[in-house]
């Protein structure tokens, strides 16, 4: 799909300098721009590229004044970075603007769905499912029995939503994610043989939650595993049974959260973090990548290491750890001198 500079300027409420009829159909970095692409200049260190870029259109701040001749058409806006982000969002909406029910697919007669549904080929909608308006479910997705989905939700190809799961409004679930699979619940007998503990709870995902590709969220043993409003989960995260993640918390890839952990609001958790079961993480906590958390954490703490300690304390300790061979040599020499003097 092609757009003219005039159309884009109208979307961004910007002013054009150059050819208002020039057309673009793709996005690019300013240093990699080519004919038919649109780019932006927000960081001053990239200014030199605007004089050599082959992009047909460049979005710039309204304060920008060219010092050399330009071959690219400019669209001047208050904030070039925010404007380009807005354009990306608009482009994504256009690209994903699908509707209708493709064949072959299956929707049970007991299920109900709202207006403007897109239901991709080879997808499955089980018994008593309720789906809101403007929902897009891409091919090979699975919705188990009694699933409830709000408005403006996108479920990408291959995602699996197990029975009884409840999903709020404006959520995005990426391909390969699995929501509502059984928690890891087993109990051994006297001979050490493990038997499965039935997992009869569900998963509740509130509004504006994003779930990355390949992430798994287990159903509760009893009650609910709960992902609160505004949470953003990266790819390949494991959220175990009965976990609760507080509003607006963000978690990076490959983090593993054991059963019954409670995470507070507005936390930032790095990649490959491991959390032991049944602990409580306070509000506003920051955890550096690859940390191991095995204790309760107070509001506002910043942690690093495994087992994790305060970030500042870790950095001070690391200085000594890095110099440990030198320290050992000094102690050895002191012991030798002491022995010689004795």
TrEMBL record:
Family named by the database record: Belongs to the transferase hexapeptide repeat family. LpxD subfamily.
Limits of the UDP-3-O-[3-hydroxymyristoyl] glucosamine N-acyltransferase non-repeat region domain: 21-89
Gene3D superfamilies per UniProt: Hexapeptide repeat proteins, MurE/MurF, N-terminal domain
This protein's GO CC annotations: membrane
Gene Ontology annotations of biological process type: lipid A biosynthetic process
Enzyme Commission number, as recorded: 2.3.1.191
Repeat found in the keyword field: yes
MF terms in GO: N-acyltransferase activity; UDP-3-O-[(3R)-3-hydroxyacyl]-glucosamine N-acyltransferase activity
Top EC class of this enzyme: transferase
Pathway note: Bacterial outer membrane biogenesis; LPS lipid A biosynthesis
Name the record gives this protein: UDP-3-O-acylglucosamine N-acyltransferase
Subunit structure: Homotrimer.
SUPFAM superfamilies according to UniProt: Trimeric LpxA-like enzymes
Organism superkingdom: Bacteria
The reaction(s) this protein catalyses: a UDP-3-O-[(3R)-3-hydroxyacyl]-alpha-D-glucosamine + a (3R)-hydroxyacyl-[ACP] = a UDP-2-N,3-O-bis[(3R)-3-hydroxyacyl]-alpha-D-glucosamine + holo-[ACP] + H(+)
Function: Catalyzes the N-acylation of UDP-3-O-acylglucosamine using 3-hydroxyacyl-ACP as the acyl donor. Is involved in the biosynthesis of lipid A, a phosphorylated glycolipid that anchors the lipopolysaccharide to the outer membrane of the cell.
Residues the record marks as active site: 241
Entry keywords, A to Z: Acyltransferase, Lipid A biosynthesis, Lipid biosynthesis, Lipid metabolism, Repeat, Transferase
């Amino acid at each position: 799909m092609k757009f003219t500079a005039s159309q884009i300027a109208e979307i961004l409420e910007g002013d054009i300098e150059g050819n208002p009829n020039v057309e673009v159909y793709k996005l690019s970095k300013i240093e990699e721009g080519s004919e038919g692409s649109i780019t932006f200049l927000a960081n001053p260190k990239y200014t030199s590229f605007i004089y050599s870029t082959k992009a047909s259109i460049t979005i710039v701040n309204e304060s920008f004044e060219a010092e050399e001749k330009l071959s690219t058409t400019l669209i001047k806006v208050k904030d070039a970075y925010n404007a380009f982000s807005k354009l990306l969002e608009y482009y994504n909406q256009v690209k994903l603007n699908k509707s209708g029910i493709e064949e072959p697919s299956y929707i049970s007669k007991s299920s109900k769905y709202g207006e403007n549904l897109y239901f991709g080929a080879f997808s499955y909608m089980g018994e008593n499912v309720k789906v809101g308006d403007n929902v897009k479910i891409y091919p090979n997705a699975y919705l188990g029995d009694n699933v409830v989905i709000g408005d403006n939700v996108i479920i990408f190809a291959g995602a699996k939503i197990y029975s009884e799961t409840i999903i709020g409004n404006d959520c995005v679930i990426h391909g390969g994610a699995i929501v509502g699979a059984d928690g890891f619940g087993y109990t051994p007998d006297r001979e050490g043989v493990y038997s499965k503990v039935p997992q009869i709870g569900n998963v509740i995902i509130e509004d504006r939650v994003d779930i990355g590709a390949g992430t798994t969220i287990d159903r509760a043993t009893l009650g609910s595993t709960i992902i609160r409003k505004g949470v953003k989960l990266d790819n390949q995260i494991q959220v175990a049974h009965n976990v609760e993640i507080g509003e607006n918390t963000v978690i990076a890839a490959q983090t593993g959260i054991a059963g019954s952990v409670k995470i507070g609001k507005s936390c930032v958790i790095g990649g490959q973090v491991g959390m032991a079961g049944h602990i409580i993480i306070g509000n506003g906590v920051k955890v550096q990548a690859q940390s191991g958390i095995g204790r309760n954490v107070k509001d506002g703490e910043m942690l690093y290491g495994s087992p994790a300690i305060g970030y500042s304390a870790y950095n001070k300790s690391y200085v000594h750890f890095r110099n440990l061979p030198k320290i050992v040599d000094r102690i050895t020499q002191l012991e030798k001198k002491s022995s010689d003097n004795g």
